[in-house]
Amino acid sequence: MDKMTFENHYMKQFDEELEEIRTRLMEMGGKVEQQLQNAIRAIGEADSKLAEEVIKEEQLVDNMEVDIDEACILIIARRQPAASDLRLVMMVTKAVNDLERIGDEAKKIANHALILADENGSSTGYTEVRHLGQSVMSMLSNALDAFARFDVDAAMLTIEEDKQIDQEYKTALRELATYMMEDPRSISRVMNILWVVRSLERIGDHAKNLCEQIVFVVKGKDIRHQK
Fold first, then answer.
1. Looking at the 3D structure of the chain, how many domains does it have?
2. 181-193 confidence digits (pLDDT tens)
3. Fewer beta carbons below 10 Å: N end or C end of the chain?
4. What torsion do the CA atoms of 189, 35, 136, 122 make, to the nearest 10 degrees?
């Protein structure tokens, strides 16, 4: 095998490895997206079985994170990527961490869904969960779509969505506080809802992190902590 053929073969293998970790990251993203959707459904429908499925799937998400991290370490060790290729590998290692955290928050929501289903009480707070949940689901979906296309413009627009989610979160907190003041008997139940909306707000933050990493890969600019 002459030198040119060897180099072409090497680059082809390298490109395939980069595409593989990107594909696996998208699969993980799809998994946590479904996990979140089911967790929100479990709250609204008082579905204990669905909540338990979300909790069980968390281990699969954890395993996916470990596998992708190991693949990234092997690429760095064997290929010693530079410039944009190195940024992509580093982005994947950070993105899988954010996705794993989203899975953690979905599991927390599912745990609270179990408690709420057992109480079999009123639907107080469900409107806030449904409204904020829809916004967060949309933001996460947009973030994953921007990553799939390496679309910086879409990533920047998605980052802006976090401001709206933060505002909706504050509104939900005020509404839930009002419920507790009007009916002290609802405090225990509403506290569970409070933890749910807190998890949703954190998921929005993680989706924002994903978009910031897209900008880093494509533009080589770190826009974290910038207005």
1. 1
2. 988 888 888 999 9
3. C
4. -20
Residue closest to 124 by CA, chosen among 178, 166, 52: 178
Residue 226 backbone phi and psi in degrees, to 5: -105, 145
pTM recorded for the entire structure: 0.90
HEC secondary structure over 72-128: HHHHHHHHCCCHHHHHHHHHHHHHHHHHHHHHHHHHHHHHHHHHHHHHCCCCCCHHH
Let me know if residue 225 belongs to a domain.
Answer: no
Residue 113: what residue type?
A
Boundaries of domain holding 186: 3-219
**Domain annotation covers residue 224:** no
Q: Is residue 97 part of a domain?
A: yes
Torsion of CA 129, 135, 140, 142, to 10 degrees: 160
Residue 192 belongs to a domain with what CATH number? Answer: 1.20.58.220
Q: Which run of H or E residues covers position 20? A: helix 3-45
